[in-house]
Amino acid sequence: MQITEDFVALITGGAQGLGNSTARRLLEAGARVVLVDLPGEAGEKAAAAFTEEFGDGRAFFAGADVRDEEQVAAAVAAAQQLGTLRLAVNCAGVATPGKILGRKGVLPLETYRTVIDINLVGTFNVLRLAAEAMAANEPVADERGQGDRGLIVNTASVAAYDGQIGQAAYASSKGAIAALTLPAARDLAPSQIRVMTIAPGVMETPMMAGMPGDVKETLEALVPHPARLGKPEEYAALVTHLVENPLLNGEVIRLDGALRMPPK
Ligand SMILES: NC(=O)c1ccc[n+]([C@@H]2O[C@H](COP(=O)([O-])OP(=O)(O)OC[C@H]3O[C@@H](n4cnc5c(N)ncnc54)[C@H](O)[C@@H]3O)[C@@H](O)[C@H]2O)c1
């Protein structure tokens, strides 16, 4: 797909981090974006900052919890008002740590459930409602009538494969997102909608900003090459490549500089 003025992208977790960086890159390419994030000031401010930079009518905020059917449906409807919803990017997520048997006792089931609910069920909720909207799009022109109606990009993590100590819930949620990718692509193929997942390594975003300098150095040293944290722009660049390359479908791409996480 080409990014044109009519191209609308819905990006969850768009207030900050990987989602925000992806929105910027898409705006630079000429798209319109709907930032979906928890209701509140952060999302409003992010959209206002983009409006200041890119002009009116380009970036909007839709406050929604990705777990909520009605709120996500409203965000999808808002995106459809702006043009053609061609891209949904699932970046909303939490990384709540917790050992199964920790110092404070056994991991509360509620903690596990909440991580699965936000990361996995939330991703699926956005995927299904975005797909429903995209299925009504005209496919982009293609010599064999096989152009895309849309693309859905999910975000897993290297924790899908090498979950560390304290990541039972997070790794379960991300592993399931990886496993969802192929059947979702197969389900949506008749609608000419592609589904791809990116599994980032350790990226330099607000999710990681709280860590002390020595922890950052230790993490950087784990990455074979380049031995540094990933940049959100590198994630955003991959999203735009996924938009442009119609053969990428049903696959998880690690974006990690060959990082393989040790147990802790
Ligand atoms: N940063 C990393 O190193 C890294 C590595 C691997 C995977 N990831 C994944 O990438 C995604 C983005 O990570 P990030 O570093 O940009 O995170 P971040 O914490 O900077 O941003 C996540 C955003 O999601 C929003 N969010 C959380 N729960 C939500 C909900 N229920 N509904 C709507 N929005 C919600 C938050 O408000 C926040 O704006 C996450 O899924 C994360 O697990 C990040």
From TrEMBL:
Source taxon at top rank: Bacteria
GO molecular function: oxidoreductase activity
Keyword Mitochondrion: no
Keyword terms, alphabetized: Oxidoreductase
Chaperone found in the keyword field: no
Ranges for domain Ketoreductase: 7-205
Gene3D superfamilies, per database record: NAD(P)-binding Rossmann-like Domain
Name this polypeptide is given: 3-hydroxyacyl-CoA dehydrogenase
Species: Kytococcus schroeteri
